[in-house]
Amino acid sequence: MKMNQNMHLLDLHSPELKKSSTREAFGAALVELGGKDENVVALSSDVAGSVQMEGFGKKFPGRFFNVGVAEQNLAAVAAGLSYSGKIAFIGAFAMFSPGRNWEQIRTTICYAKANVKIEGSHVGLDVGEDGATHQALEDIAITRCLPNMRVVSPCDFEETKKAVYSAWKTPGPFYIRCTRNAVANFTTQETPFEVGKMNLLCEGSDIAIVAAGRTVFDSLMAAEELEKEGVSVAVANMHTISHPDGAALEALARKCGSIVTVEDHQIVGGLGSAVCETLAERYPARVRRVGMQMKFGESGKGQEVLKKYGLDKDGIVRAVREEIKKKNR
Amino acid sequence: MKLKTTKELALMANTLRQDIIRMLVPAASGHTAGPLGMADIFSVLYFHEMNYDSKKPDWGERDRLMLSNGHICAALYASMARAGYFPLEELLTFRKLGSRLQGHPSREKLPGVENSSGPLGEGLAIACGMSLAGKMDGAKSRVYCLTSDGEHQEGSTWEAVMLANKYKLDNLVAICDRNYIQIDGNTEDVMPLADMAEKYRAFGWHAITIDGHDYAAIISALDEARKTKGRPTMIIANTIPGKGVSFMERDYKWHGKPPKEEEAKRALLELEAARQKIEEGKA
């Protein structure tokens, strides 16, 4: 594999590779920001522990508000705080925020360009045991259609921290998608992160995988396996789904001819759609969307459920092989 | 501008009502009954009660007015124009392409509008956020939130009601336009709201019920709210929808339609007659 050295990634097989959920990174970054900026406030809707806001709440009790099981209130109260100059971070399960409070997010946050940063935790099939009702598979679709919203799906701990810092520095609404379960922390402090800029993690010429969130690591593992079969696979991390990096996508499509998108989200409305829309206008190319095929999930261990629906490394490998066959026909 | 006497406040309310009728005719769409019903309360809030500087809408120490039931914004715009936020002529652009006076208020477009509203059941939550921020900053400013009775059918309203109690938001005073009408008919037929003051008391608020057209009662309720510590206050203001125009009063059909030119003429004649009475001290 031709890893892009500018990305400063860790060795994917290093025994030192740590694993953690990205919600933990969100919580850790929030505590740091709380110490740096008195205007940072945080709110949760009775899931402060789950979304890792407890640390902030303990350290800055006067700046933490638990609104109870009330996601609509979560969004609109945060909007009110932001209108008065606060930078409000709100955290809940993505299924309920932005799932349940979408209209409050649209009217009170996006329309007002409010300085509210939304942590949607427990996304995708990765949620596992809690089952279909709690597996947010449509959250990207309903947030990236909102004007003024930036939607970021970070791939690991380090990148999530960078996304939270960017959200803090950049005025306006953000939606940051976080995982419940641990994922390998393979990026480093030196890995670049810029909202709206795609990261090419490894170079390849036969086909390109464009992924986001927890599937980025599995996409790299898939590329490694395919390499052994003689297939040269590029892997890119398109963390900002609301603002697709058109130039970088076009360059990938020109070089590789066909793209496979990978996400722990429905294939409609998410990363796959964003890539299709962008390429259709710039440089039409074949796109194969790996993601949830418009179904509801089910209970099981996160990894088991991901595997069953083809969103693990093996599923990605299968999809790429099929796509290569089509390309060579 | 601080209006002190009942006569001055009544004249201002009459002015606002005439403005509302005049702006709704060219708009050719919009809501009539609600704005007319709330004109007396707007008169007291903008010209007696609140501290603000219309030339500096972002002044940090201003009192905040959150209009939750944004569809009655004709009353808000008329008040803001009379308070000097923008020229009176601009009222005639209401609901027109390119206007800052959107069909429902836009915080982005019109300085002085604290919250974009229209979608019901949101204003009180935003007001709670502003009140929390005020508390954190030790601000002296107060937060006023105007709500409608109908929007208390939105569950989200009650989420905010609980939060205001939890955080003892005594810098917050809400006023409910209790006019008993909503789009489909009488509130008690569509979805009964019953005794709203009792509901608020059960949620830990201080609640006061008044006649929303009685200036002394409005002022005294706002004073009582200011003196009430450790809990938010809700003022249930019984109002007559369409107040001031006989053929509109208490008729829910005037909730969501504007007067036609002929109807507006009749309305303005009535309002002008009422004005004369106020001037003569007979009202």
Model regions low in confidence, pLDDT < 50 over at least 5 residues of chain B: none
CATH homologous superfamily label of chain B: Thiamin diphosphate (ThDP)-binding fold, Pyr/PP domains
What's the rounded overall pLDDT mean of chain B? 97
Largest interface by Cβ-Cβ < 8 Å? A-B, 29 and 32 residues
Number of domains of chain B: 1
Question: Radius of gyration of chain B, Cα only, in angstroms?
Answer: 18 Å
In CATH terms, what is the fold-level topology of the largest domain in chain A?
A: Rossmann fold
Report on the biggest sheet of chain A.
6 strands, mixed
> What's the SSE pattern of chain A?
EEHEHEHEHEHEHEEEEHEHEHEHH
- Helical residues, percent of chain B: 40-55%
- Beta-strand portion of chain A reads 15-25%
Determine the oligomeric state from the structure: heterodimer
Element-by-element helix/strand order of chain B = HHEHHEHEEEHHEHEH
Our count of domains of chain A comes out at: 2
CATH class assignment of chain B: Alpha Beta
Mean pLDDT of chain A: 97
Strand order of the largest sheet of chain A: 1-10-12-11-13-14
CATH architecture of chain B: 3-Layer(aba) Sandwich
Q: What can be said about the biggest beta sheet of chain B?
A: 5 strands, parallel
Low-confidence stretches of chain A: none
Descriptive account of the structure:
The complex is a heterodimer of chains A (329) and B (283). Chain A is α/β, with parallel strands linked by helices and 329 residues long. Helix content of chain A is 37%, strand content 20%. Chain A is built from eleven helices and 14 strands. In chain A, strands 1-10-12-11-13-14 form a six-stranded mixed sheet, with helices on both faces. Chain A has a six-stranded parallel sheet with strand order 4-3-5-6-8-7, sandwiched between helices. The mean pLDDT of chain A is 97. With 283 residues, chain B is of the alpha/beta class. Chain B contains nine helices and seven strands; from the N terminus they run ααβααβαβββααβαβα. Chain B has helices spanning 6-27, 33-49, 73-83, 123-137, 155-166, 187-190, 196-202, 215-227, 261-279, and strands at 64-67, 143-148, 172-178, 181-182, 185-186, 206-211, 233-238. Chain B has a five-stranded parallel sheet, with helices on both faces. In chain B, helix 1 packs across helix 3 and helix 2 packs parallel to helix 3. The radius of gyration of chain B is 18 Å and the shape is globular. The chains are: A alpha/beta (329), B alpha/beta (283). Chain A binds chain B through residues 41, 62-63, 65, 67-68, 70, 72-73, 75-86, 88, 103-104, 107-108, 111-113, and chain B through 66, 106-108, 114-119, 121-122, 125-134, 136-137, 155-156, 159-160, 162-163, 166-167.
